[in-house]
TrEMBL record:
<dbReference type="GO" id="GO:0016791">
    <property type="term" value="F:phosphatase activity"/>
</dbReference>
<feature type="region of interest" description="Disordered">
    <location>
        <begin position="1"/>
        <end position="23"/>
    </location>
</feature>
<feature type="compositionally biased region" description="Polar residues">
    <location>
        <begin position="13"/>
        <end position="22"/>
    </location>
</feature>
<dbReference type="InterPro" id="IPR036457">
    <property type="entry name" value="PPM-type-like_dom_sf"/>
</dbReference>
<feature type="compositionally biased region" description="Pro residues">
    <location>
        <begin position="1"/>
        <end position="12"/>
    </location>
</feature>
<protein>
    <submittedName>
        <fullName>Serine phosphatase</fullName>
    </submittedName>
</protein>
<dbReference type="InterPro" id="IPR001932">
    <property type="entry name" value="PPM-type_phosphatase-like_dom"/>
</dbReference>
<dbReference type="Pfam" id="PF07228">
    <property type="entry name" value="SpoIIE"/>
</dbReference>
<dbReference type="InterPro" id="IPR029016">
    <property type="entry name" value="GAF-like_dom_sf"/>
</dbReference>
<feature type="domain" description="PPM-type phosphatase">
    <location>
        <begin position="238"/>
        <end position="471"/>
    </location>
</feature>
<keyword id="KW-0378">Hydrolase</keyword>
<dbReference type="InterPro" id="IPR052016">
    <property type="entry name" value="Bact_Sigma-Reg"/>
</dbReference>
Length: 474
């Protein structure tokens, strides 16, 4: 569309008739009309531009909302405007009011507050948030109350403030002029101001949510750092044993747990700082669930288990005591813990163990190339306070290798929904033991097998923990 330049106003004075009065010609009247329309258009553009600038630069929502009734009444040449917001708790509140006539403004405020108060009273008793869900009914009640309390002689136009497709308030504009008409242009201008109000409210809410997320992220980083520090920083030196371990969490805070604990920690520190020839506990566990709650329970489990180990009981008795101590807390949290606890004696190469419903570790026997599952009867920690656990032992020989793992390995799924399962893990473990002598190489190979199974670039949805223990050959 090509813009046609408007004719400049004539510098010549209007012609005068015989009586000396100005003779207003149709051309002059048209020029005055066009000039007035231009001035009105420029005024509206300037006001809306100022409102847009305020929207881009505001740092305080309340300060921005102060402008809304003023702008709405200015761009429509009305006498006043009001902003009413719907609160999540069901309150309908007069947020802001502007009126050129201060005395009439007091009457307007009184009528608006009465209307909003009666609308709020009709919503009393609704559950939090349901009032917003019934916004169409709220709007109908509010409009009815406004018409009733402000009188029929006032010209009223109201439009909704939509935030994420939900009406969160109303913007009203009033005029006392009898000949005032709500033309289509004026209605569009009010809706435009209402839309900018909705954008400001949504931006403010997004900013609040972002700050909450940033605060939560910082807390998660602290939690992840604490959890990382609670896991063994390195594998201990145990006579005749080589170890490798790694925990990969699906989230920043996970529920997997593994630990190496000197079984005779107190006595060993007193008599011989080098406790590599003493018994060592090797344990692995998994808290049902993920994230911060699972991480907190894992931390609690670690502390209680380390305290229990000092009592010098058998593996089954240690699990039984741990279950009795943790039962009340786990029952309240509706979470449970799987745990495999073992003790290795370097002098006899005897491994004693007990299982609380954890994935049984796999033992590769070097002499026979057999895979043995190390398992005993026992229920989850925290499921039944009367649960009984069983002790078992197995003699290890030079070259034997054990992997302790969590269900993140066997439950890892590919794009077709197939699980890696224990059969694939057993096959990969046997191949690794046949071709690698270093536990670190075995660990890396098994992690690579799972990653290749689920797809390169994909992340497993569960925590994955693996401990490899290999008896050194003679």
């Amino acid at each position: 569309m090509t813009a046609v330049p408007l004719p400049r106003p004539s510098s010549q004075p209007p012609e005068r008739n015989n009586s000396g009065s100005a003779d207003v010609t149709p051309v002059f009247a048209l020029k005055e009309l066009v000039a007035r329309l231009n001035r009105e258009q420029h005024k509206i553009q300037d006001l809306l531009s100022s409102l847009g600038f305020a929207l881009r630069s505001f740092s305080n929502l309340n300060q921005f909302l102060e402008l809304i009734p003023l702008m709405a009444s200015r761009v429509t040449d009305a006498d006043g405007g009001a902003l009413v917001l719907f609160r999540p708790n069901g309150q309908v509140k007069l947020e802001r009011l502007h009126c050129q006539d201060a005395r009439w403004g007091q009457e307007l405020r009184k009528g608006l507050e009465t209307a909003t108060r009666q609308t709020t009273a009709s919503l009393t008793g609704l559950p939090p948030g349901e009032a917003l869900a019934r916004s169409s009914q709220v709007v109908a009640m509010l409009d009815h109350q406004l018409t009733r309390h402000l009188g029929g002689e006032i010209q009223i136009f109201g439009t909704g403030i939509l935030v994420r497709n939900q009406e969160r308030g109303r913007l009203y504009v009033f005029s006392r002029e009898p000949d005032y008409a709500w033309t289509e242009t004026r209605q569009k201008l009010v809706r435009l101001v209402a839309d900018q109000t909705a954008v400001a409210i949504e931006n403010d809410e997004l900013t609040v949510e972002l700050k909450k997320k940033e605060r939560l992220d910082r807390e998660l980083e602290i939690g992840a750092d604490i959890q990382l520090r609670l896991l063994p920083r390195q594998c201990p030196a145990i006579e005749g044993i080589e170890l490798a371990a790694l925990c990969k969490t699906a989230n920043r805070v996970g529920g997997d747990y593994y630990d190496f604990i000197p079984a005779s920690y107190g006595e060993a520190r007193k008599t011989n700082p080098d406790n590599s020839q003493e018994k060592w506990s090797v344990t692995i566990g998994d808290v049902m669930g993920k994230g911060v709650p699972a991480g907190l329970i894992m931390t609690m489990t670690r502390g209680m288990l380390r305290a229990e180990v000092l009592n010098g009981h058998s593996p089954a008795r240690i699990l039984q005591h741990l279950n009795q101590v943790m039962y009340a807390d786990l029952e309240n949290s509706n979470r449970f813990v799987t745990l495999f606890y073992s003790e290795y004696d370097p002098k006899t190469r005897l491994l004693s163990y007990s299982n609380a419903a954890h994935n049984p570790p796999l033992l590769w026997q070097a002499d026979s190339d057999r895979i043995v599952r190390l398992d005993t009867m026992g229920m989850l920690i925290g499921l039944d306070i009367e649960t009984q656990f069983q002790d078992a032992q197995i003699q290890l020989n030079p070259g034997d290798t054990i992997i302790y793992y969590t269900d993140g390995f066997t439950d890892a799924a590919n794009q077709y929904g197939h699980r890696f399962d224990e059969e694939n893990l057993t096959s990969a473990f046997r191949w690794a033991c046949q071709h690698f002598d270093d536990p670190q190489q075995i660990l890396k190979y098994l992690f690579d097998c799972v990653q290749q199974f689920i797809g390169m670039g994909n992340q497993n949805t569960d925590d994955m923990t693996l401990v490899v223990m290999r008896v050194k050959p003679n």
